[in-house]
Hints:
The protein is an alpha+beta fold. 19% of the residues lie in helices and 39% in strands. Strands 1, 2, 3, 4, 5 and 6 form a 6-stranded mixed β-sheet that branches.
Amino acid sequence: xxxxxxxxxxxxxxxxxxxxxxxxxxxxxxxxxxxxxxxxxxxxxxxxxxxxxxxxxxxxxxxxxxxxxxxxxxxxxxxxxxxxxxxxxxxxxxxxxxxxxxxxxxxxxxxxxxxxxxxxxxxxxxxxxxxxxxxxxxxxxxxxxxxxxxxxxxxxxxxxxxxxxxxxxx
Length: 170
């Protein structure tokens, strides 16, 4: 089984007397979108969904890169905002089957970090990133566990909420 190591971030921002979190609407979700078998497996163009899928910004750890570096880079590339690391929230582990290329089963580990917004405009991302991200936006942190699409990411949002509730100094 193939292994993939990724990292991502839960970026939070205090505004309007509450905590908000950066979320993305993926343009295409190759881990979830099944396209027949391996013979037909290709990356699909942007999928138009009736209900938008919300996810956390994340991506593969590049050779020589530390997971935290990856998380900070992916947050910037996929949301347009820069953030400062606060703490590691944990790892999400799951298996998926590639629907492109070799159709291999993949064991994936994603390390997530809590980050505090520093600068930038949400959704101000490079045009070449639009193949991965349809839109980035702020959502209320307290609503994130029910709005995010994936179990492991819902868990990370809950951990982020617990952390901010326990650390008033943030």
